Amino acid sequence: MNLLNILDRLADDHFYSKIGSRSEGLSHMANFGKKAAITGIPLGLGSFMATSAKAETVTTTSTYSAASAASALTDALQLALTLEYLEDEYYRTGLAKAGLIPGGDKVVFQQISKHETAHVAFLKATLTSLGTEPGAKPEFDFTVNGAFQPFDDYAQFMVLAQAFEDTGVRAYKGQAGNVASNKAVLQAALQIHSVEARHASQVRRMRANKGWVELANGGNMPAATDAVYAGEDNLNQAGYNTSTLFGATAGSASFDEILTGSDAAAIAGLFIV
């Protein structure tokens, strides 16, 4: 298991030990002895046993690593499926609400909706092919107990659309290490990631924002969505200060940050009943 896998799984364990109620989550968004025995055996036999023990250790470690990689892979796919379920239902619901989306914008969201439906179908098929039952679609409450009214107010609909797309982009990046054990899945995940990034850029521009994220600022977004952009003001990449050439704003915008599995799950969980 590589470092990305370890860090993400630790983050998930931390998340599940600390996560509170949905209302608390919304508030947080607004303000993440064997050697000794062998020496007593005749030299030849002792050496054999030591070699056998070493081989057994290697085999056990290899088996454990393979199992861990498989678990990390399916966990990452299940998280992605939850996020795609969320986006898919969100756009389906918005498109079905008469008079909500202006005619010119509706064409865009109809296409985005088709993409999300395709992503759901792919992730379910992939999990099934790996011998894992795809998670059932959760029941969603996009109002978060009345805090939002996205299907009655187009401006709010757009705010959550941007938040969901920006979350998806960061979440897929955050799971790259966990799907790297399967090259076919990794390639497909990267292909989905780039499409989600195009969605995010399009929606951001439809809201008169830049297509990219600058610092920890989603661009004309309410404080309740701060968790989506937490950490985006990072200036250091692999020990290099990205602000050196053009300043903090351009340096930060040149590198998007990830969301850990726990952070992405916490954001999605606010909208799950």
Sequence-ordered SSE layout with sheet pairings:
Blueprint: H1 3-18, H2 22-30, H3 34-39, H4 43-96, H5 103-129, H6 154-174, H7 176-179, H8 183-206, H9 226-229, E1 236-237, E2 240-241, H10 248-253, H11 261-269
Antiparallel strand pairs: 1-2
Helix pairs in contact: 1-11, 4-5, 4-6, 4-11, 5-8, 6-8, 6-11
InterPro entries: Ferritin-like_SF
Pfam family, one: Ferritin_2
Organism: Kaistella carnis
Description:
There is one protein chain. The chain is mainly alpha-helical and 273 residues long. 66% of the residues lie in helices and 1% in strands. It has a single domain, classed as Ferritin (Up-down Bundle), CATH 1.20.1260.10. It has eleven helices and two strands, in the order αααααααααββαα. It has a two-stranded antiparallel ribbon. Helix 4 (43-96) packs antiparallel against helix 6 (154-174), helix 4 (43-96) runs parallel beside helix 11 (261-269) and helix 6 runs antiparallel to helix 8 (183-206). The longest helix has 54 residues, at 43-96. The chain is globular. The protein starts with a helix and ends with a helix. Mean pLDDT is 83; it is low at 1-23 and 25-57.
What's the CATH H-level superfamily name?
A: Ferritin, core subunit, four-helix bundle
Q: What is the overall silhouette?
A: globular
Number of domains: 1
Task: State the total count of DSSP E strands.
Answer: 2
- List unreliable stretches of 5+ residues: 1-23, 25-57
Order of helices and strands: HHHHHHHHHEEHH
Please tell me the CATH architecture by its name.
Up-down Bundle
Helix content: 55-70%
Taking the sheet with the most strands, its summary is: 2 strands, antiparallel
> Count of helices?
11
CATH class: Mainly Alpha
The side-by-side strand order for the widest beta sheet comes to 1-2
- CATH third-tier fold name: Ferritin
Structural class: mainly alpha
The end-to-end distance, rounded to whole angstroms, is: 33 Å
Radius of gyration: 23 Å
Mean pLDDT: 83
**How much β-strand is present in the residues?**
under 5%
Protein name: Ferritin-like domain-containing protein
Organism: Kaistella carnis
Pfam families: Ferritin_2
